[in-house]
Structure formats: C-alpha cells, structure tokens
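In practice, a research group might receive sequence data for several interacting partners and want a quick structural hypothesis before committing to experiments. The following worked case mirrors that situation: the sequences arrive first, and a predicted assembly follows.
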Amino acid sequence: MRDYYTITELTREFGISTRTLRFYEDEGLIHPVRRGRTRLFRPADRILIKQILRGKRLGFSIAEIREIIQMYKAPPGEVGQLRTIINKAAEKREELRQKRKDIEDTLAELEQVEEACLGRLAELRVTS
Amino acid sequence: MRDYYTITELTREFGISTRTLRFYEDEGLIHPVRRGRTRLFRPADRILIKQILRGKRLGFSIAEIREIIQMYKAPPGEVGQLRTIINKAAEKREELRQKRKDIEDTLAELEQVEEACLGRLAELRVTS
DNA sequence: AGATACTCTTACGTAAAAGTCAAATAAGTG
DNA sequence: CACTTATTTGACTTTTACGTAAGAGTATCT
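A structural hypothesis for the assembly, expressed as tokens:
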C-alpha cells in the first residue's frame, strides 16, 4: 500500500480528469494533503474516490454522495445524532432496494429482447 | 384500463411536471396523440413513462433510455440489425449487473453503519 | 539550459434535464 | 355566459457536473 498518489496517477487509474478530482475536493468529498501547493492523495482518499464513482454509477448526485460518505465517517456522536444517522441509512437502503428492483425488472426485459431476437434469427435461418 | 389519460393525471400519478412530459415528447420518448392541440396519453404511453422514470432512477441519461426503449420496440428486422440489438442488450445487461454489484456493496456498507450506530447506542445506555 | 511533464489557481463555457414565466386557447361548471 | 381550471407553445433561466483555456510555478530528463 502506497503512502501517496499523485493526482495524475489517480486520474489514470480511474479514467477521470484532474478537474474532476479538484472538483470533488471543492465539494468537500475528499481532502488530499498538500506538499507546497501540490495535492497528495492518501490511500483513504483513493477509497473515497472509489465510493464516489460507485455512487455516480448509481445515479446519485454529488450532494447525495456527500451524505452517504458522511454517514460512513460519522463520529461516535450523541444519541440524537446516532438516531438521525440510523434513519438516513435506512432511507438510503430503501432507495437502493428500489434501484435493485428496477435493475431486476430491466434485466428481465432485456433478456426477453434477446430471446425475441434469437427466436427471430432462428426463424430467418429456417425460412431462407 | 383507461383509454386516455390527460397530462395532469399523469403528472400527479408520477409526481413529475407537465414540462417534463413535454420534454420527453420532444426527445421522442413518448408520442401522445392529439385531440385538437391537447395531448392524450394512452396506456402504452403510461407504460413508457414508467420505463423512463425507472431508467432515470438508475442514472441513465435520456439518450441511454431512448436506446433501451428502442430495443423493446425493435421491429423484426434483418439479420444484421438483430445481431446489433442482441449485442447492445448484452452490453446494457453487463452495465446493469455492475450497478447491481455497486448496490450490494453500498447496502452492505450502510448495514455496517447502522450496526455501528446501534452498538454505540447500546454502549451509551450502559455507560450513562 | 532547454524541453518535457506535472501541477496549481482562476475563470469562463457547456450539455443535460428540466424549471419558470408569458400569452393564448380550450374546456368544463355554477 | 362568466368564471375557473387545464393546456398549449415558446422562450428564457437554472442547476449540476464537470470541460477548457490561460498563465504561472515546479520537477525531471537530456
């Protein structure tokens, strides 16, 4: 496990631009340290980037991703805070289950599409 | 099953604006018929709207949703076309499986968050 | 030393997906 | 029929998530 990654190393690993990483920093999603003015990304930042990109793939906005990330690193906190986090996490999980159902439905429909196409291809071979 | 729905009925059912439905029409995703200038939505349009919103929940762009919808209603077509559709469908399915994995991972992490919070709550009750 | 490769900040630009507003029609109701 | 409510088109605006370009600093290679 490396101590530090440069910004370009990470853009190459994840196929994103430097602008994107700086944008995520501006948005408070990551907090690379500095040597002079240059950003140095630690393994923890790298994992955060993975989580951000995963959230993006699922269609979450930056704001939503920030919320999710903040749940991960919520400090011990007091009772009220803990309850709030538990509720938010439950909400997000419900949303994720809905998305999962959406995926299952779409997958099923696409499988039907494929079957229909294969069936039609078979027909064409017989007919021709 | 109703013959026609007005635009407002559908905005209420799906919690979207008229602007949104007109935008989807402009984008060629739906094709409501007209009585005079007024749009009348048929059950088929309603189902399309459901599919569009499902795609949106999964983070697909309008362009991607259009592609998916076009696969559903692809005509018999000739061999080359059929193969193209089969390939596209396979691609989309792969993408969906990735999203499903992302969901599983995020769900697992959020469950950990909840457990950690519950554990901390239990501690607080004992400690106090 | 010069070239090459990274990096920084600042600022303006842009595409997607609607939101908002105006002005005009149309339709349904007491 | 007047009134209200729904609908239309068209145009302008907004938000999000970056892209892009300028101008300057820094580090490494040759």
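Before designing any experiment, note the following. Residues 17, 19-20, 23, 27, 36-38, 56, 61-63 of chain B lie near DNA strand C (CB under 10 Å from a C1'). Chain B has a mean pLDDT of 94.
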